[in-house]
Design brief:
Low-confidence stretches: 1-27
Shape: globular
Distance between the termini: 37 Å
Number of helices: 2
Oligomer: single chain
Strand content: 25-35%
Length: 138
């Protein structure tokens, strides 16, 4: 439960900073790949292109997480809630998926193959509670 309370503190900080800044910036306390993928997918669900995000996982030049370099392009529409409860937003270059906190684990079958931030080619993803996936068209 400690990680959850840390996330709440960071989220409040992010909201406060957003109200004062001309563009928003989503701060996150994630230090694992899974936490940062959830943060990045959540960012892509809501991004309008004039904002940014950050995380604290593999952020040095010698250990750089590929998720920091993802470019999905223009959104194809607003986010939608799938029948499974997972939130999804499609982009020209990929898709972002988020399973909300407190939701059961769910497997999403994808309409086409995608590459994950680890480079794996997938046709489905399983998301636990408070989990996200950023997938790129190969």
């Amino acid at each position: 439960m400690r990680a959850r309370s840390a996330s709440r503190r960071c989220w409040r900080t992010s909201i406060g900073a957003t109200r004062r800044a001309p563009t928003s910036y989503h701060f996150a306390c994630g230090t694992t790949r899974a936490q940062c993928e959830y943060n990045l997918a959540s960012y892509f669900l809501t991004s309008s292109g004039g904002d940014g995000t950050t995380c604290r996982y593999q952020e040095s030049p010698g250990a750089w997480w590929a998720g920091y370099d993802v470019a999905l392009g223009e959104p194809l529409g607003a986010r939608v809630k799938l029948a499974s409860g997972v939130m999804q937003r499609e982009y020209r270059g990929g898709v972002a998926l988020v399973n909300q906190p407190g939701s059961p684990s769910v497997t999403v079958t994808l309409a086409r193959p995608y590459r994950t931030t680890t480079g794996a080619l997938v046709s489905s993803v399983t998301l636990g509670p408070a989990a996200g996936a950023v997938l790129v068209i190969p």
